[in-house]
Design goal:
Blueprint (H helix, E strand, L loop, with lengths): L22 E10 L13 E7 L12 E3 L2 E2 L18 E2 L2 E4 L11 E3 L2 E2 L6 E4 L2 E4 L4 E2 L4 E3 L11 E2 L7 E10 L19 E7 L4 E7 L1 H5 L24 E12 L3 E4 L3 E3 L5 E11 L5 H8 L14 E3 L7 E2 L2 E3 L9 E2 L6 E4 L5 E6 L5 E3 L2 E3 L3 E6 L5 E5 L10 H4 L13 E2 L15 E7 L5 E8 L4 H4 L5 H17 L34 E9 L10
Antiparallel strand pairs: 1-17, 1-22, 1-23, 2-14, 2-20, 3-6, 3-17, 4-17, 5-8, 6-7, 7-13, 8-9, 9-10, 10-11, 12-16, 14-15, 15-16, 17-18, 18-29, 19-28, 20-21, 20-26, 23-24, 25-26, 27-28, 29-30, 31-34, 32-33, 33-34
Amino acid sequence: MKPLLALASLVALPLHLWSAEIIEGEMAGYLFAPAEKVPEEFNGGFSLYAAAWPLVGTYPGHRFQTGLCGTWMHPQWSEAEKPKEKCYTDIEGGLGWWRDTHFPTITPKFIMGGVGPNFSVIANGPGYGAGTWEKPRGQYGVAQLSPWLLIPLDGLNLKQGTSGELFGYGYLPLPLTNKKSTTAGKNVPTGNQCWTLFLSTGNFKGPVAFFTPFFWSQALIEHPEWTGKLLDSCPAGPNKPIQMETQHVPAILTDKQARVAPTRFPIGADGTSTVLHRLTAYKKEALWDDVQRWFDGGAVADGKIKPEAAAIHTFRSGGGSNWSIYPPGTKRDDKTPLAWNAFATSFTPNPITFGYQWNAQLTRREGSLVVLPEYFQLGTNPRGKPLWQVMDAKQASADDKLTQHRFETPKEKPQEPRTTPDDPNSCWKKPGPVAGPFKAKLGDGSTVTYYWYRFADQPAMLNADLTPEERRQVQQRVEKLHRAWSKDRDYLTPPDLGKLADIDPALILTPPKGLEIGYVPIATRQEVEDNQNRDKP
């Protein structure tokens, strides 16, 4: 790969004609991973292993928003089944950083990211979603299932210092509830697909939490025409886009030059980066049938996912980027891409792994990370279209404003605590917890206050459109899971390469004596109790 600096397409304007004015901008766009399709009958969920790493070296403030490699799981509709009006709904969470994160570090967090039709409701975890507590729009959409893992109100923390390890996760449906012929008293049905988050990490494995079917089906009250088309009852499309969505990495620009905040990828001993591994689609019977028979009085289901009901996507050559650098207010069609292929080449070290090789002349290595080019000069591509091309820092404008700039964490107002209702008549207090409060001090500098609730009495279950008898039945099923499924054995197939990432050890819990079966930890508050520096690697 030749250094792009030598290409004749660079715009050779005299320095005195370049604008010396520096304006703030951003780098944003998508990286694409080309996965081959699997048969449509593998419509019962997915799993993958995504690399987790600090994309930037210094936290850029709350404008920073980007995900690492992930996907969007939509309902599976044929052309005939597709709703006539817009009905965007999916599960699109994953690893990353978000503008509404209260306690960020350069280590990514994980959110569940359930999106009800047209973003009417959003659920990111137990007690974490869109809206306010006065007008919740998703805060009650996720129920805690595991008795061994605490999920903070700000998203699930990874261990600080994670740098390229693989974070395994996926969603499979479990029949924890029964189908209902009515929804919130209306004559529309609710299915019983409880899409359950399964994790495969170094210190925790297994089911964690699930979207209540009512999270999806509540939209049917106003839109009965969507019956059977939402994820409470509809299968999931198996052939999902695999991308890395970047919404804001800080940059500065003149009219002919740009500099991007140092942006990094993980790098192995061989000089390459693995970013995604073992993307798998499942048939519903991969787990559902055994669990349903167990709940109906049959043999205990061991939680093993049937390999014959799984299809692993392979990756083909290709993939690309539309990462662009532009000033604020730039229209979509006017954004200028950067020359990604000059320093990055997609490759597949094996058919089920996707990664990158790097141009060593244009990138530099810092320990377990590779730093991408920072400086760009405006040129053109072979079709004459504008293109940000890599340049050496020595070629920056004569006034040195680009090179003297420091990308630093801005001074921002302290983040308010994340809280939950304390009204004694609220679902958080009636019937309320059975033990607590307890506290966990996390690696991001925050402290989480949590309580232990009987599973069926947690706020999400009290807001899941279930009768007391229906909640009693779910309680019995969850108690079976707690007795038979542990947190230290494999559910998802382990990766064939690399090392598993760890969750923040402070979030791995041992239930209090007597609360080992049928009880779950629920976070009720998250705050910074001291002046601990949160911007640490």
